[in-house]
User: What shape does this take?
Amino acid sequence: MTPGSSGRVRVRVPATSANLGPGFDALGMALSLYNFVEAEAVPRGLEIEVAGEGSDDLPRDRSNLVWRAMERFFRAADALQPAGVRLRLDNSIPPASGLGSSAAAIVGGLLAASGLTGLTLPLETVLALAAELDGHPDNVAAALLGGMVVVVPQPGGYRWVRMLPPACLRVAVALPQLALRTEHSRKVLPDEVTLTDAAFNVGRTALLVAALAQGRFDLLATAMQDRLHQDYRLPLIPGGAAMLRTATREGWGISLSGSGPSVIALGVGESPGPAMADGFARAGVRCRVLDLLVDQRGAAVEQGTAAAPTVEGMRARGRAGARRPLIVLKYGGSSVATPELILRVAARVADTRSSGSDLVVVVSAMGDATDGLLALAGAVARLPDRRELDALVSTGEQVSVALLAMALQDRGVDAISLSGAALGIVTDGVFSRARISRVHVDNIRAALARGQVVIAAGFQGTGPDGQVTTLGRGGSDATAVVLAAALEADACEIHTDVAGVYTADPRVVAGARLLPRVSYDEMSEMSSLGAKVLQLRSVELARRHRVRLIVKSSLVSGPGTVIEEACAMGETMEGALVRAVTHTKGEVKVVLEALPDVPGVAARVFTALAQQNIQVDMIIQGRGREGRNDIAFTVAQDDSAAALAACRQVGAEVGARRVAAEEAAKVSVVGAGINQDARVAAAMFECLAELGINIEMISTSGIRVSCLIRPDRADEAVRALHARFIGPAEAS
Ligand code: ADP
Ligand code: ASP
Ligand code: MG
Assistant: This one.
């Protein structure tokens, strides 16, 4: 075997809808309905086993499309073919239905051959091979890449863009019990169309892409219309035309999927699925309706290992199309601070479990256990080594996951705790603020397939060399988001000690209001300015991976706060002024006094900080007098000792008069567009002046104004700013 080759490989490929709406031959979308291809090298022969869709009629010899694609790969990659191959195909995509079953077989075969041989080809080549075998680049590109793909042929290859529609987009597919082969439905199409029809489709295709990019679901009904192929094909589908006319619903667009007979609807809110089924039923056609989501990952190869879940394991989870919902829940330290609270969380998890969902529960360290561990380190070393600090603080989560797993087992719920390493979370290896680079979900999937609730240690993962690394304060939120993305969970709920995201920290401002919806932008800004209810990284990861977050109370039920794209919120942000007042007390201001005022000094200071991975926030430099100047900046408390040490060294080298640090607090007002209105900053400064609070530094961005003040005046300042900008509590 070639290095990197594997005796066994398993590939998962999504169903796809081509010709999406008006995007004839150019727009494809991957759907959360999957075929699995498992390939194994054996001493001789070709053995093919087929389960699920198509098991009655798909060929089990060399004419099988998966095998043909594998052979095509071997040829293209100049690979030595394995002496024998055993293939197991477990299909959820119905063949000849307009859901890309042939593209899935081809992409599955190409990737399986790549996994077996350990050879890879450039993505463009794989796409071109797949398109050549299937004839439909919009199907194969979406199956390969996931999300929504715009793809066009070009001499010498394809040009494509993949985009992820908002995660809240729902997909309903009506699958009438009719077989329609693409070859047949191609024949009914005209060679030429009118300019009017061409223009109709050009405009709508652009509209569809723009609507999905911006979450303008109100446009979908128009944007999904087509005049290039549907009208010619609908006569081949009994009930289809009448159904398309009647199953309309606000916020949803409907079109044929591929060349039919399936019909696809995209939108948000109540699904038109039942109305679609009804439409077919009236024409005497039986039909199944699938409620799906957009697949975000595309085809995925999982190398076969003993621990990897088997096809049987997958079946135990239910068929992929109708898989059980998977929910990632996160309970913060405040929610598991005592044994009593752990028992309450166990009771809530058991309740959620009884609704039949698969669960991954991410847990933080109990209460302020992390702070306790950091204090221990501080008691034995002045500047504790970051590697050892991570080894120390990662134990906090290991305690809480084991306790929660025991509490669940005690209630008769099968649960297993997994540390960061066992969860398969791989980081970039930077101690105390590692970023997650990959997640190998095999262990989690295997535990879920065994019917276990997975209790996942938050805040940690292993670096490339196997060392324990932690993800920064509040990092369990990032663990939850990343696991939700990697597992394609149906929901990611962050449970904490408050009912959601408020207009200010409810522990400081009694009248703070619960915000039902917050955009990713606003939440990022709020998190970076001290609303520790969600860690900043977790918000950025959620935005990137389109994970819709819900922040809720771990104690009482309530709707909580949904964090999603502004566009999905259905409100315009224009005119919205201050949405929240935030503050942080853990700031440290470092001042380098009377530095030589010459080029290169600031560069030396900040290079020294950057080398230690210290994140600097506000920076100011004075006006300079007599060849000397002051530089001041702020850092988080955790970094202050390292920052001070670095500055003292540079200060001594360049001849600073004094290097000092003092604690400070930052108060901020956040809201879209406030930098365009100078009255906001003016009112903020006036409000602080009325309290006699001195402003030490000021910074602004598009959607916030921040002031650095003395930490002992912070609460007062927040209350006054909240009263000024947001007003008193709403009467309930
Ligand atoms: P957990 O232990 O659940 O991770 P954290 O203590 O990290 O909880 O975050 C929850 C806390 O965030 C709340 O108790 C609240 O005091 C604080 N918080 C700060 N600003 C806000 C805000 N704008 N909305 C909600 N909570 C806030
Ligand atoms: N225990 C870690 C901390 O205190 C992570 C977390 O709570 O999310 O920062
Ligand atoms: Mg937290």
Observations:
- Residues 304-322, 569-574 have pLDDT under 50 and may be disordered.
- The longest helix spans residues 386-410.
